[in-house]
Design a protein that fits this description.
Blueprint lengths: L1 E5 L2 E6 L2 E6 L3 H13 L2 E5 L21 E4 L4 H20 L10 H21 L6 E4 L6 H8 L5 E4 L7 H4 L5 H9 L3 E4 L2 H15 L2 E3 L4 E4 L2 E7 L6 H9 L10 E8 L6 H14 L7 E8 L6 H21 L7 E4 L5 H10 L2 E4 L8 H8 L7 E5 L12 E3 L4 H13 L2 H17 L2 H13 L10 H12 L3 E6 L19 H12 L3 E6 L4 H8 L5 E4 L4 E4 L2 E5 L7 H11 L8 E4 L4 E4 L8 H14 L3 E5 L2 E5 L6 H13 L7 E7 L5 H6 L4 E6 L10 E3 L2 H13 L7 H7 L1
Parallel strand pairs: 1-4, 1-6, 4-5, 6-7, 7-8, 8-11, 12-13, 12-15, 13-14, 15-16, 16-17, 18-19, 18-27, 19-20, 27-28, 28-29
Antiparallel strand pairs: 2-3, 9-10, 10-11, 20-21, 21-22, 23-24, 24-26, 25-26
Length: 729
């Protein structure tokens, strides 16, 4: 099943009658042959609305049949989701033109809603589809919704535009949400290795996921997400045959430089015209000898920015033609319209030079079509280094489209190049593109999408040395750990959650170090926490930090907590009225927890909703935990406040001059500590990756925490630099 913004057909109306046309664009050209080969269904927007009694054309019979499943968009959604977030936010940003990007919350909200609708439409018709294949920047969030609707589905994504570098991508206010959308996939494909590396860099630095850069893999909770480069090819044989079938043009003595683009500011058409103008300035011998034929296919004509671009191009063409033109010679011939494929193939074949100079491009199939069409006298490809295809088309003359002098000099070089050199370059390009054609792209991507992948190797001490070694050097360490789900696995009942012997030994070894303070911060009652851990040299914060005790600390109980003990007992009795097998209430003094881990999973959310309502009605704050709902007294105190209190109580208000803090937790209650320690410590969230986190890094499971403890216990002793730092102050 394919999901893309557009179906391979477009609905239009002329004089009130429905007309169905084939959609244009590289995505449709690439995918339609694949769908004919594979069969299945295609989910997308048809570009218009069906009215009463109207239907899309039925699938063709035979081996090349596939089903069309339309997703309707309202006029507001077209404006906000498509023209707004997709094309005024993502398109310029992903093409490394952030100055053109606009950021509007309403556009984002419509984008999210439409992506959810695409996912729902796919689930309705996917049946037993082996693969759900999502395409392009319009649907970066669709996989996140699909994963929730179909947890076991095999999902792949292919991005047809560039993926920007970290410095540019992080400008996006919703950078986390889009990355998490892609990480809901099993495979994320890009045209170029550089785009895949940019993606992994953003995932590691912005989400804290563990990344294997050599294998291009991400550890996302208990799944491995594979990234990869899959350069898109063309139907080489068909393009070559089309070029051979065209009649040869009558010679007129002019040399032809050809530019073919959709009208878009990323294509560098104004820069190209200026470079051609510079050629005529620098090399007047080519005047009346060389012509630039620029074809601009209309695009997004209703968008003001594109209207302004057309005016700019019109004015540039007029200026150059007015400056250099003669009565019998026009230097630039400009066509603002689509060109039929057969006519375009003839132009490719007969052009002396293809000038393909986008400012930024995911791939650029024009360059490949030109190469495949060179079946007569060999031409020269002048190609922007900013196009994805430049990564492999080494035999082209690669240029910086922003450097008009350099482009002009390379045009001069191409015009003077010997036939032998032209032939050698074009044959090498043809050999590669013939091998790496559309079928090869499909075979490689679909093969990778079906491949099973093991989890990354468990986190090692070397990983923690890389992440924390320099951070901790010359400072004392304050280590804070949650208990359930962090130091030990979540159990069906809290009483069964026990530290493994290896974890207990590592924890004790950390606590025994003179340069390390260790504290357990848990939602359990303080007495229960102290009993179940059973180590003397640790500090303990129970009830999410409402109760604290430990070496060097004055016993602490939040002064407002006593006012809520009686009310908490009353709330426990009320929650006891939820008569559901496997549901029980854990009383902890001023707080309590309703557990439903042993209940019927199908009833879990209903139980949680009822508990939240009762907790709120009683004046407590409900907080979700793992198959549980916490009832917290509304006293403005949480694990974050508790951690900062312990640091100040033990090391004074200027604790940050002497201490480095590590906090490790696994659920929503630990997010309070992650928030409090932003910029002040190294934070890790354990386990599932389907919820956002403020932690700097994620770790897969409690085994990774044991590795952290062993590394902390074994590292060289720290010579504290507190005194030296005080002298500097």
């Amino acid at each position: 099943m394919v999901l893309s913004n557009r179906l391979p057909i477009t609905l239009r109306r002329a004089r009130g009658k429905l007309q169905i046309e084939k959609s244009s664009g590289g995505l449709v050209a690439a995918l339609e042959p694949a769908m004919r080969q594979q069969g299945g269904a295609w989910v997308g927007w048809p570009g218009g609305e069906l009215r009463g009694g109207e239907k899309l054309p039925p699938p063709k019979s035979g081996a090349d049949s596939f089903r069309l499943s339309p997703v309707g968009l309202s006029a507001t959604e077209v404006r906000c989701y498509y023209h707004g977030f997709s094309n005024r936010t993502l398109w310029p940003l992903f093409h490394s033109l952030p100055g053109r990007a606009e950021f509007h919350r309403s556009d984002w909200q419509h984008y999210e809603a439409v992506n959810r609708r695409f996912a729902e439409a796919a689930c309705e018709v996917s049946g037993e589809a082996d693969l759900l294949w999502i395409h392009d920047y319009h649907l970066l969030r669709a996989a996140w919704h699909l994963r929730r609707l179909r947890p076991g589905a095999r999902i792949a994504f292919f991005l047809h535009i560039p993926f920007p570098s970290f410095d540019i991508y992080r400008i996006l206010p919703w950078y986390r949400e889009l990355l998490r959308g892609l990480l809901a996939c099993d495979l994320v494909g890009f045209h170029c290795a550089d785009y895949a590396k940019n993606f992994l860099d953003c995932v590691e630095r912005l989400l804290g996921e563990r990344v294997d850069h050599d294998a291009l893999q991400v550890e996302h909770g208990h799944r491995t997400v594979q990234a990869g480069a899959f350069p898109l090819g063309i139907d080489y044989a068909a393009q070559e045959q089309l070029a051979r079938a065209q009649r040869a043009a009558a010679p007129n003595g002019e040399r032809l430089i050809l530019g073919v683009d959709r009208l878009d500011y990323t294509k560098g058409i104004p820069e190209r015209i200026r470079a051609f103008e510079r050629l005529l300035e620098m090399h007047p011998e080519f005047r009346e000898q060389v012509v630039l034929l620029q074809i601009a296919v209309p695009s997004r004509k209703q968008v003001t920015e594109y209207q302004a671009l057309k005016r700019e191009i019109d004015e540039l063409v007029g200026r150059v033609n007015g400056r250099f033109g003669r009565s019998d010679w026009t230097p630039i011939r400009y066509l603002y319209r689509s060109i039929a494929p057969d006519r375009l193939a003839a132009l490719y074949r007969d052009a002396d030079i293809a000038l393909v100079t986008p400012l930024r491009d995911g791939m650029n199939l024009v360059a490949k079509e030109f190469v495949a069409s060179q079946v007569a006298e060999p031409g020269v490809l002048v190609l922007s280094r900013m196009a994805g295809t430049a990564e492999t088309m080494h035999e082209s003359l690669r240029v910086n489209p922003y450097n008009a002098d350099s482009v002009a000099e390379n045009l001069h070089r191409a015009l003077l190049m010997s036939r032998e050199d032209r032939l050698a370059r074009i044959r090498a390009l043809q050999r590669r593109e013939r091998t790496n054609d559309l079928s090869a792209w499909l075979r490689d991507f679909l093969g990778a999408a079906q491949r099973e992948r093991a989890l990354l190797q468990p986190v090692s001490s070397a990983n923690f040395e890389e992440w924390l070694g320099a951070f901790l050097r010359d400072f004392r360490t304050a280590l804070f750990l949650d208990y359930d789900g962090t130091l030990c696995e979540i159990s069906s009942h809290p009483a069964r959650a026990r530290l493994r012997p290896a974890a207990r030994r590592a924890l004790a070894a950390c606590a025994a170090r003179s340069d390390t303070d260790v504290a357990i911060v848990s939602g359990r009652a303080l007495a229960d926490l102290r009993r179940i851990v059973g180590l003397k040299d640790l500090s303990y914060a129970g009830n999410h930090g409402i109760e604290i005790e430990g070496p060097g600390l004055k016993p602490f109980a939040h002064p407002d907590s006593t006012h809520f003990r009686k009310r908490a007992a009353e709330l426990a009795r009320e929650l006891g009225g939820i008569r559901e097998p496997g549901v029980w209430v854990e009383e902890k003094g001023a707080s309590l927890t309703l557990h439903y881990r042993e209940a019927d999973p199908a009833r879990g959310e209903a139980v949680a909703a009822e508990a939240r309502a009762q907790i709120s009605a009683a004046g407590f704050q409900p907080r979700d935990a793992h198959c549980a709902v916490e009832a917290r007294p509304p006293i403005g105190w949480d694990k974050g406040h508790a951690v900062l209190h312990m640091l100040r109580a033990r090391h004074g208000p200027a604790w940050s001059e002497r201490m480095r803090v590590i906090y490790v937790g696994d659920d929503e209650t630990d997010e309070d500590a992650f928030r409090a320690l932003q910029g002040l410590g190294a934070t890790f969230r354990i386990g599932r990756a389907d919820e956002p986190t403020l932690a700097l890094r994620r770790l897969r499971d409690v085994g990774a925490v044991e590795t952290l403890l062993r590394w902390l216990a074994a590292r060289p002793a720290t010579a504290t630099r507190g005194a030296r730092r005080r002298r500097v102050v």
